[in-house]
Amino acid sequence: MGTGDGDGGGGAVQRRGCSCAKEDFFPEESFKSWANYRQAFRETGMRLRDRVTARSLDQTELHEVRARSGHEMKRNLTWWDLIWFGIGAVIGAGIFVLTGQETHEDVGPAVVLSYVVSGISAMLSVFCYTEFAVEIPVAGGSFAYLRVELGDFMAFIAAGNILLEYVIGGAAVARSWTSYFATLLNHNPDDFRIHVSALANDYNLLDPIAVAVITIVCIIAVLSTKGTSRFNYIASIIHVAVILFIIIAGLTKADTKNLTPFTPYGVRGIFKASAVLFFAYVGFDAVSTMAEETKNPAKDIPIGLVGAMSITTLAYCALALTLCLMQPYRSIDVNAAFSVAFQAVGMDWAKYIVAFGALKGMTTVLLVSAVGQARYLTHIARTHMVPPWLAQVHAKTGTPINATIVMLIATAVIAFFTSLGILSNLLSISTLFIFMLVAVALLVRRYYVSGVTSYADRNKLVACIVLILASSIATATYWGLSKKGWIGYVVTVPIWFLSTLFLGLVVPKARAPKLWGVPMVPWLPSLSIAINIFLLGSIDRKSFMRFGIWTAFLLVYYFFFGLHASYDTAMAATPMRRLEEGRDGQDPGNGKASEVEKGGS
User: What domains are defined for the chain?
Assistant: First the structure.
């Protein structure tokens, strides 16, 4: 296996913890001089074709790419740490901020079913993430998985959007932190914000408390992952105790009459709320980025991820049911649902416990988000799609300090200026898009191995995936356009079902998971694709416009910088296999994929 030099190769380079030389930012050959850059830019078409069709190898991600950080991350996490990281990452602002809003405006008491639908979608994605995290335990999370199965270019677009979701989500949680902190002190949130009339509305209430909280979280995150884990599960245990208090105390004031009518907005309301409430499940993917730091990925990751999501779904359904039993849905407050509900039943003192629990939850969400987003950025930087300075791991702490600080500075700037209303409209779309791509990547991983899969079987796989995607998009589109029609579903749903059935019966699997695998393939990944696309169809048009604008910005950056840097790095390192090739990794003796092709840990 070849390695490159410091100009963009794959060799392990021992770096200082926070060096800032030019070579740390643009060491690639294309950026050595203006003449080199002009030549590289003239080759953009050829280089783009190469990156679109290039797929990485499991072994490349596990060894060569990881070595570019200079130092290893410390492997000191267990399944116990991952469960509490998962709970800490997920149970936060979503349940306290969005439950009241959706119950009052979109779904009524059937919000419990909305959480079930969102939870099923999230659990299907958890299965897909778990198989990848066990087989490719690196810090890159979905970026690394997509790079291996769908190629460099698609991985970059996906990663750029997940980083946006992390930054926007972190900023939204930080602004919510200020709101609940104000409630705890009997103040209006704007009492703690600085009004600047010269700035536009929605950007003129500066939030220094949000910045302070993000700064503290950053310090904790860069010091030690194991220390972060200890802080997280202590805080999460307290948070779980508060949730149990809310459920038990709330149920003492329950009135089953409040559940009637159960579905005042119909089935459409249930799914519309599910798309919004999916934000409450966002965060578990951050746990998969910690695979590189787990002691035993094959055991720890499945228990940690699936366990955390199961606990979270049960907690959400119980909290939502408790809220609806305490008050008629029309009376539920859209801003501070649980606090107002306790006031309404004569337990005014309980609002302080609710506010304290919300603060604890949001703090752990920020903390786990800080850890996860830094590891995403670290692995992206290892491929040189962004400056490799961001990939450096500190020798003493074993954490990616540069990436952590940069991501949290971006989060703090947005949280300082931008109102929660603007931020909340940007959240779920990127995550649903990534989860859909990871499910597609899992199908590719199981059914396509270069050198093993025949061209005929490859074409059948492509046709099945295209039909699954097309029928899912058509179903979501018909749902959005036709309020009462049903004819469209008679066409789209059978196409999805028959495409998945054909894939399962006719196309042979090319690879079996070595350690842990998703059950019922292709049905579970196909269902994950369908549900994620269906929920995407329930998101408002403005969010799609912002999604498109951000993706366009990513493309501009990629064409001018990321493409050329990653191309130089790949050419100096181990050659990547092409999407369309059927030769690389083949053992002519038995026609099966070699160990490098199959990956491995």
Answer: 58-418 (1.20.1740.10)
